[in-house]
Amino acid sequence: MKLDSYGLMQQSICYDRARQWTISVSWGYAVQIFRGIFLARDMEIPARTFLNWYRRVDYTSFPFNTRPFSRNTCHKPFFFYLSNATFDGVGDETVSEYIRVQLHPECNWKMPDPTQIQVMKVLKKPDPHLWDKSPRRNCCRVEPSKEEGTMVIDVGECRKNEFAHK
């Protein structure tokens, strides 16, 4: 939290178009990889990982919308949780590592499989004025990685021809 309190748990969504993956980065908490390309507005809706207090299954009783939980193993996201965060003074950025913690069932889709990714490395320049700017969200992009089993994500201000999903 001391490294970048302004960006803590802010969700950034990016795409690995070559592999057809959607990546959700909640800086300082978790990174998720989804097979397929999903709209940012759908990704912003919280996943339905809980039930209401009543015994009947009624998803309309929540005061907010939730994204349905799919039973198809190919739709299940790959979760990576924060393992370490440091500040790189040379690059003037935080370097955070997220480790995949669960085994994932096999999927027979004919697309690249995220199971080879074990570590997500997220690079982010702290921006204490983020909330004074519009849009109040960072963009992210997939960067080339030299380490096998590692995916590198750069989170920061939106560049030309990029936009923050609203």
Task: Describe the secondary structure blueprint for this structure.
Blueprint: E1 11-16, E2 21-26, E3 30-35, H1 40-43, E4 78-88, E5 93-100, E6 119-124, E7 139-143, E8 150-156
Parallel strand pairs: 6-8
Antiparallel strand pairs: 1-2, 2-3, 3-4, 4-5, 5-6, 7-8
What percentage of amino acids are in beta strands?
Answer: 25-35%
Percent helix, as a range, is under 10%
Annotation field: number of helices: 1
Structural class: mainly beta
CATH class of the domain at 11-38 and 72-156: Mainly Beta
Topology pattern, helix = H, strand = E: EEEHEEEEE
Q: What is the assigned CATH homologous superfamily of the domain at 11-38 and 72-156?
A: Mannose-6-phosphate receptor binding domain
CATH structural fold name of the domain at 11-38 and 72-156: Cation-dependent Mannose-6-phosphate Receptor, Chain A
Mean pLDDT: 84
Number of strands: 8
What CATH architecture of the domain at 11-38 and 72-156 would you give?
A: Distorted Sandwich
Give start-end ranges of low-pLDDT stretches: none
Pfam families: DUF604
InterPro entries: DUF604
Written overview of the protein:
By secondary structure, the chain is mainly β. It has a domain at 11-38 and 72-156: Distorted Sandwich (Cation-dependent Mannose-6-phosphate Receptor, Chain A). It is built from 1 helix and 8 strands. It has one helix spanning 40-43, and strands spanning 11-16, 21-26, 30-35, 78-88, 93-100, 119-124, 139-143, 150-156. An 8-stranded mixed sheet has the order 1-2-3-4-5-6-8-7, with no helix packed on it. A hairpin with a 3-residue loop joins strand 2 (21-26) and strand 3 (30-35).
